[in-house]
Automatic annotation (TrEMBL):
Keywords noted in UniProt: DNA integration, DNA recombination, DNA-binding
Taxonomy of the source species: Bacteria, Pseudomonadati, Pseudomonadota, Betaproteobacteria, Burkholderiales
Organism: Comamonas testosteroni (strain DSM 14576 / KF-1) (Pseudomonas testosteroni)
Stretches assigned to coiled coil: none
Protein name: Bbp50
Gene3D superfamilies reported in the protein's UniProt record: 1.10.150.130, Intergrase catalytic core (1.10.443.10)
Record-linked PANTHER family: INTEGRASE_RECOMBINASE PROTEIN MJ0367-RELATED (PTHR30349:SF41), PHAGE INTEGRASE-RELATED (PTHR30349)
Protein origin, superkingdom: Bacteria
GO terms (BP aspect): DNA integration; DNA recombination
Residue ranges occupied by any Core-binding (CB) domain in the UniProt entry: 78-155
Family: Belongs to the 'phage' integrase family.
Length: 323
């Protein structure tokens, strides 16, 4: 590939040449202090970069330090893949959160990993998201959040002047509402498991119904439990059992919801129930508030009347209400 106008290809590097404010500027493209190799991909990048610089010069908004903050270092030469890896290397996260970050990076790299961060466009991100309509809104938001955070770091490190991910809209998603089993269904499921499967299956189901553990807290996989062809966990007990009992199917995680609603219907305070579930009280109420009443209105009103009657110096509340 020959020299393009203003792009000078050397044996071990690439140099840009352009006029700015009556002066001829020549800058060798560097990444982390080293000249970038004159590969076809880097040459194409240099041509695009020079075109971008000239466009800004004509518009009157070219700022030298944004492209050459250290005299010759073109920070924009960093690829998205490199920036994601760098961001992850300095990010402090719990193991569970780290797994989510790794999943996000794995998603982005095939689509935009080879792009220079300075060339990343809003439309590139939207195009990548559009290729995976199977992803839930929550997953898309998690992936975008990780990319946005990585580009925020690029801005702080002066690699970019603005974050190209900042304006990417959040995908719409709705949390799956709780769909607990009623007490009769719980007993049927446990009895069926006890009669038709190994004792450990019934014990596991009963323990989960009455402990409220999360799926991640409960699962202890074995190799034979994974269907490598369909890429999912084999479930030889749950689906056949509900089908045999004629009980509407719900995923096993609704056993956790069942425990939460049983706590409320048994009279546990929301604060105690939230603590059992590992939620904040606000989070717990936002998910399970519809089960708080459950026909207990008269009982709760009686509690209030009793409290007021015992603590008020005047006439009992019931007599006041009958006037």
């Amino acid at each position: 590939m020959g020299n393009a106008r203003g792009v000078e290809i050397r044996e071990s590097g690439i140099r840009l040449s352009f006029a700015h404010r009556g002066e001829r500027i020549r800058r060798t493209l560097l990444v982390e202090g080293k000249a970038i190799a004159p590969t076809p991909a880097n040459i194409k990048y240099a041509i695009r970069l020079l075109a971008e610089i000239k466009l800004k010069i004509r518009a009157g908004n070219f700022v030298m330090r944004e492209y050459f903050p250290e005299g010759g270092t073109v920070a924009a030469g960093t690829t998205v893949a490199h920036q994601l890896d760098h961001w992850l290397s300095v990010k402090v996260a719990e193991n569970s959160t780290l797994a989510g970050y790794l999943s996000a990076i794995k998603f982005w790299k095939p689509f935009i990993g080879e792009k220079q961060v300075s060339a990343l466009k809003h439309s590139d991100i939207l195009r990548a998201i559009k290729t995976r309509p199977d992803l839930s809104g929550k997953t898309v938001n998690n992936y975008v959040s990780a990319l946005r955070s990585a580009m925020d770091l690029a801005v702080l490190d002066k690699l970019l002047t603005e974050n190209p991910v900042a304006a990417v809209p959040s995908a719409k998603w709705q949390r799956e509402p709780p769909d607990p089993f009623d007490r009769e269904e719980v007993e049927q499921i446990i009895d069926y498991a006890r009669a038709n499967f190994a004792p450990t299956v019934a014990n596991l189901i009963a323990f989960r119904f009455f402990s409220g553990l999360r799926t991640s807290e409960m699962v202890a996989l074995r190799w034979h439990s994974i269907d490598w062809n369909k890429k999912r966990f084999r479930n030889p007990f749950w689906v056949p059992m509900l089908k045999a009992l004629g009980i509407r199917y719900r995923p096993p995680n609704h056993m956790r919801h069942t425990y939460a609603t049983m706590l409320l219907m048994a009279g546990a305070t929301p604060a105690y129930a939230a603590k059992q579930m590992g939620h904040s009280a606000e989070m717990f109420l936002s998910v399970y508030s519809k089960w708080l009443d459950d026909g207990q209105g008269d009982i709760e009103q009686a509690k209030l009347e009793s409290f007021i009657g015992q603590n008020s110096p005047g006439t009992p509340l019931k007599k006041q209400r009958s006037r």
